[in-house]
Amino acid sequence: MGNAPDHRTAEVDVSRVGAIDWDTIQPTYEAPGARDAVPDMPPIPDVTTPPPGESKDCWTWRHDDWAWQPPIEELPPPRQEVVTEENPLEVDVFYSMRSPYSYLSLFRYAYLHSTFNVDVTIKVIFPVAARTRHESGHAGSGRWYFYGYSVMDMPRTGQYEGIPFRYANPDPILEDVRPQPDATMAVAPMEKQPYITWLTRLGAAALLEGKTLEYCLAVSPLIWGARTPLGEWPLHVEAAVNSTGMDYSAIIEDIQANPQKYDDVWLKNQDEFQTTGQGGVPTASFNGEPFFGQDRFDQLFWRLRQNNLTVRKERREPFVARPLRWPSSSGGE
């Protein structure tokens, strides 16, 4: 393949990255005027995060079990008290607006929150492509096999789960991903990213208003669920945010005037995410225990049932239909 990079490693030809014109590159389809929908955003603080380390604050390193060597801490014992609407279980879900698997897990988390005595809080963070971006511009993890597999697997998972899916056009992260295998997989600098800061700060605003489930249910299907014409999802974000009961214009004005108020939210989310010991999303955290991936929902549900999960007397908003692939042992629901 000539000078194509070897995607079996995380190495990148830095000279090729430096030659990318981020103002004109278009690896996914972007409808005319899409970027015009994005308001001016104040500069963003550094979004990169180090890998979770072997520290006393890292859940996985405290509880890892090597078989021959016991974990530093045992798993927390199951909850004994009765779980009610007034005394619910609590689950945090770390979520990225760029993550297709976050979107594919969203409806199960929404149904869990609506139907059972568990408070599910979505916490929007920057995607791993931004959080692990190297000075060379590369955000790859060295998992050369995963990109092509995941792009193939996403629509298959949507079909299996009964969830409408189409790859995001435009991609919320500007990254040199097409055509393969000649793409560098480099990620544009944050100041050249047209969408992700906007979406993440809106997610912070939603958390401040207690509406991140509503925000993600309104906006993520625009990006990943083919709810808008190809390439046009940015044009519909304002209406989607307003549909949740939030005031988009007022939020944007406040973000522009007080960016730190919103940046403090996603920064705190990322700090909390780091303590789980995970690196990817979606990750649900229950009692600090991480459940990484949309395919770990059944295990999370099993753990919640071990902790006396109960069904609500009446469902609460936001309402979604019962997911097609719901855990079979649902405790009477």
Structure description:
With 333 residues, the protein is α+β, with helices and mostly antiparallel strands. The protein has a domain at 84-306: 3-Layer(aba) Sandwich (Glutaredoxin). The chain contains eleven helices and four strands. It has helices at 14-18, 59-63, 100-115, 128-131, 146-161, 196-208, 212-224, 237-243, 248-257, 259-276, 297-306; strands spanning 89-95, 118-124, 283-286, 289-292. A four-stranded mixed β-sheet has the order 2-1-3-4, with helices on both faces. The longest helix is centred in the last third of the chain and has 18 residues, at 259-276. The termini are far apart. The model is unreliable at 1-10 (pLDDT under 50).
